[in-house]
Amino acid sequence: MFRVKFLIAIQPFFRVGKPALRMERAATKTRIKGDAANWSLQFERGALGKDPAADVYYDEGRKNLTLSNLTAELVGVIEKELLARVG
Asked: 43: closest CA among 14, 4, 54?
């Protein structure tokens, strides 16, 4: 009978490929998506909260969402659209 010993050297570091990193990043940034007849919405789960200071505030009693910290670009688009409706 022969006995064979295998020696395995484990490196103190290893490389992780870009696809694995993308998958890990995607897993930590899980999104909530939804839509209705006239709108669609997508945001990261971490933005959702029941505190009025949350970026996406859910008022459980009223069943409403309030979006905060809008970009200047988005505010501009919204205000331009609303102004066009008045004029």
From this structure: 54
